[in-house]
Amino acid sequence: MAEPAAPGHPLPSHMPIGAVRVAALTLSDAVAMIWDRIIGLESRGFSIHFCNAYTVALAERDADYASCLNDADLVCADGTPVVWAQRWLHRQTPQHSSRVYGPDVMEAILARSEETRSPGARHYLLGATPDVLEALRVRIQRTWPHAHVVGWESPAFRTPTHAELLARDERISSSGANVVWVGLGTPKQDFEVARIAARLPVVALGVGAAFDFLAGTTPQAPQWMQRSGTEWLYRLATEPRRLAPRYFWGNPLFISVILRQRVRSPRA
Question: Lower CB count within 10 Å: N or C terminus of the chain?
C-alpha cells in the first residue's frame, strides 16, 4: 500500500487495462508528482512503471508480471494506444489525461534538476551497454550540467546472482542516490524496479529505451507518429530483428484484451 502522496500532488486512481491497473494523468502532473517524491523521500522506496501495449500483452500471459505492476506505487500510460484504451473502457478517465512517456519523464526530471540546481535530486543510471551509458552520461553533462549524477553501471546481460544484487544495492546506497533510472528492457526492468524500491529509499523508474533515445544512439519516431499511435512502425523499421516478435505477437494480443474487456464491462 502506497503512503499518502505529497500535498498538492495526490496519487491518481488506477483503472484496469487488461490485467494491469494504469493511472490516468498528464505528463506535467506526473513529473510534478515524481519530483515531489524524489525530494521528499524519507524511509521507503517508490516504484514507477510505464505501461504500453506490449506491457499489457505480457501481463495477460504472466500473472507474476501483472502482480509486479499492480503492486507498484504508480503505473503510467506510456503508449498512446493505452491512453485511447483507457478512455474507451472507463467513463471516469479525465479527457485531459495524456501519454506519460518514460523518455519524456526522464528528460523532464533532468531538466528540473538543472533548473533548480538542487542537489536534492541525485541520479543513478542502471542499464544499457557501456557505450550507450557513456554516451548518455556525456549528453546529461552537456545538456543538464547541474543534474547531479552520482553513479552508473551497465549490468552484464544475464541473470545476476543474489550476491551481485546485494552488491548493486550497496553501490546505489553508498552513492547517495535518491532516484534510480532503470533501462534493462521489458519485463526485466520492471521486476528490478520493484526489487530496488522494496529494499532502498529511492524513487525507482523503469524507463525502457530512454537511455538509447536520450544518448542519441537510437533515433526516436517523429512526433506525429508518437501522437498517432504508429510509433511502433517506426521502431520496427529501425530494429526489425529485435522488435518484430514483440510487435507481431504483442499488438494483436493487446487489441484482443481490450475488445474482450469492453464486451465484458462496456464503459465501466
Answer: N
